[in-house]
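The data layer described in this paper is built around a simple, fixed record for each protein. We quote a single record here, exactly as it is kept in our systems:
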Amino acid sequence: MVADRLAAAVDLRRAGQWQAAEVAYLNVAAQYPRAPEAYVATLAAGALRLEHLEDPVGALRLYESLAHGSALGVEALSGVARCYQALGNRTAELSALRSVIDAYPTSIQADRARVRLKQLSAPSTAP
């Protein structure tokens, strides 16, 4: 059952078993590609790659693979922006942040994107 497999992946994540959790999430997405849980699992695998497995390029591929029109599309777009930030690609990050704001203007992620845009436009205080 897809819910059981997703729950097992969540348990691995909670236990700090990042690599095993990522594999479990990706297996859910591969075995149940049409289930809503596949989308959630792909988002979770992307977050693990970005936040714990030091793989922003792999995370970016996962986030970009998701259809942005779904209810969780804002999560995918936000993930794309975070990946570009981690990769140091300011131009792509700016574009992704604007996409979040344009597509989901009233979301919490849009509020965060606005804050990040202000940070990026602030004058540098470096010597």
Summary: The chain is about 75% helix and 0% strand. Residues 81 and 96 are 5 Å apart (CA to CA). The chain has two domains: 1-58, 67-120. The mean pLDDT is 93.
